[in-house]
Amino acid sequence: LGRLLPNKDLEATRQRLQQAGSPGGMSALDFYGVRVLVLLLFGGVAFLLVGQGQPLLLALRNAALGFALGWILPIYWLRTKVRSRKNKILKALPDALDMLTVGVEAGLAFESAMVRVGEQWTNALTQEFKRAVAEMRVGMSREEALQRMAERCGVAELPTFVAVLVQSSQLGVSIAQVLHSQAAQMRVRRRQRAEELARQAGLKMV
After folding, report:
1. How many other C-beta atoms can be found within 10 angstroms of the C-beta atom of residue 130?
2. CA 142, CA 162: separation in Å to the nearest integer?
């Protein structure tokens, strides 16, 4: 199956799975395997049950619809998982940065503060904190580990935050000050998103 799929499709699926939190530990090939199984299941059920007693052409049409539905549903499920996880990360980000700020100001190293936040709070963002710290402990640089974390999360605010944090470290600016200012900015953005959703609610109801 891997030889039949373009590399760009496999890479895009890998990124979506990462952004969804790697549900079930699936790889990109595993996901395509699931899609094929669901396709065969839906197509077979549509042909054998829904198409029973109907002319052959109608049964084949039902099977084709079942195949299409079985191929599309896993994509819809994955996109829903990605969207849900991104929303959770966006909601948790300002508070997590506040907690990091408190830890750093209390004298903890940045990595130790990330671990402390992960111990006191369990969500999608703190899971990524723990993974980034684990990568740092096996020899990966802080910059690379944070950039990989931002890529896995797929949230627009994180790459900006990582770039500012790396630049501040290079310039010798206080990490606590950067964390505090970034938390304030992200809280403003969160409020702006909430206001935008509130404005859209009336139109969606109509």
Report:
1. 15
2. 10
User: pTM for the full model?
Assistant: 0.80
- Identify the helix (H) or strand (E) that includes residue 89: helix 56-105
Contact 106, 195 (CB under 8 A): no
Crossing angle between the packed helical segments 56-105 and 157-171, to the nearest 10 degrees: 30
CB atoms within 10 A of CB 31: 21
Between 119 and 176, the more confident residue is 119
| 6 pLDDT higher than 70 | no
DSSP letter at 107 equals T
Exposure letters 87-109 (e unless 16+ CB within 10 A, then b)? eebbbbbbbbbbbbbbbbeeeee
| Largest Cα span, the chain | 76
Tokens of 6: 């373009």
The span from the first CA to the last CA of the chain, in angstroms, equals: 45
User: Which single residue is written with the structure tokens 């109801």?
Assistant: 205
